[in-house]
Write a structure and sequence with these properties.
The protein is mostly helical. The chain is built from 2 helices and no strands. The protein has a domain at 20-49. It has helices at residues 2-36, 42-46. It starts with a helix and ends in a 10-residue tail after the last helix. The chain crosses the membrane at residues 12-32.
Length: 56
Amino acid sequence: MRALQADTAGVIHLWLAWSVVILSVLHGLAALKHHFIDKDDTLKRMLGRSSVDSGA
């Protein structure tokens, strides 16, 4: 019984770990897309740098 639980927990852990890795990579790629393709200030705001026309 314990071996089955350990195997199940291992599989769940593996899937969750890879999901976090994939989502992190997609998030980074989306930030780069905003910076290089859309040429907006999303990446600058994420890094804590204010935009020239931010209104603040």
